[in-house]
Amino acid sequence: PERQPDRDVSGDSSLRETDTQKGEDPAGVALLPPKDGWPEAPPTGNRKVRVDGLEQPEAYFLLSVPGGYSRERCWPLVMVLHGGPGGRPDDLASVFRSGLAAKGVISVFPQALQAQLLEWNYPHSSAYLLMILRQLAKQYRLDAKRIYLVGHSMGGGGVWHNGAILREVWT
Question: What's this model's pTM, rounded to 2 decimal places?
Answer without folding.
Answer: 0.81
